[in-house]
Amino acid sequence: MTSALINGVELYSAVMNALTAMQSGMRGLVITSRTRVWTTLVCGAVATLIALLGQGDFMTMFESFLTLLLYVLIPWSAINLADYFIVRKGDYDIDALFARNGKYGRWNAVGLGSYGIGLAAQVPFMVTPLFTGPFAAPLQNIDIAWLVGFVVTAVVYLMLVRSARKPVVEDSQRREGEATAEGAVGSAGLPRR
User: Fold this and answer.
1) Helix axis angle, 145-184 to 109-122, nearest 10°
2) Across the chain, what does the average pLDDT equal?
3) What residues are paired with 132 via a beta bridge?
4) In this structure, are residues 111 and 76 in contact, taking their beta carbons and an 8 Å threshold?
5) Cβ proximity of 9 and 33 under 8 Å
6) Are 75 and 153 spatial neighbours (Cβ–Cβ below 8 Å)?
7) HSE of 130, CA atoms in CB hemisphere, 13 A
8) SS3 helix, strand, coil % of the chain, rounded to 5?
9) Straight-line distance from the first to the last Cα atom of the chain, in angstroms, rounded to the nearest whole number
10) DSSP single-letter state for residue 127
């Protein structure tokens, strides 16, 4: 009975994630009862197939899955932490996060680029049953890929944010200088009193 409850909760989670992804990716999609039923059947079939394929060596497969999750989540965590504590210092415009064309934009090219570089930096250090990176053997197969991924991602993100903001700062300083010069001269070209 307990495993049925756990499997039900896990299936529900998978279905909700799939429906969210579908709704985000397909503009104008209306989630109906029929959509929910079919999504549940497909997710259940995929989960059953994965369970059947991995039943002979479940613990190894599960450990590999968790390790891959670690590799995928570490760069994301590094970006979030660096952005929150160093770049923005916790100052976010919450309403703008939900605006399609808000000040944060739809995609953060700096974040996505940093994420890709962080993922790539982990590959030489990875230790999984499917793949072991070339730098893992000299380290006696100690998995430090996640440490490398965290540090590289955070550093790259901070450097890219700094280089992306520099022209904006210089441009705003230039505009402030022009505004000050315009303020000193009236519309007729005479100094204001």
Assistant:
1) 160
2) 84
3) 127
4) no
5) no
6) yes
7) 9
8) 70, 0, 25
9) 85
10) B
pLDDT in tens, 99-144: 878 888 778 899 999 999 999 999 999 998 888 999 999 999 999 9
Rounded Cα–Cα distance for residues 7 and 29 (Å)? 28
Q: Quick one: pLDDT at residue 180?
A: 54
Phi (first) and psi of residue 119, to 5 degrees: -60, -45
| pTM confidence score | 0.66
The C-alpha atoms of residue 43 and residue 9 are separated, in whole angstroms, by 12
User: What is the secondary structure of 131-171 as a DSSP string?
Assistant: -B-TTTTTTTT---HHHHHHHHHHHHHHHHHHHHHHHHHHH
Q: How far apart are CA 25 and CA 124, in angstroms?
A: 33
3-state secondary structure of 176: helix
Q: What is the CA radius of gyration of the chain?
A: 25
Task: Give 77-122 as a DSSP string.
Answer: HHHHHHIIIIISTT---HHHHT-TTSTT-S--HHHHHHHHHHHHHH
Helix axes 2-25, 33-53, angle to 10 degrees: 120
Mean pLDDT of 49-62: 81
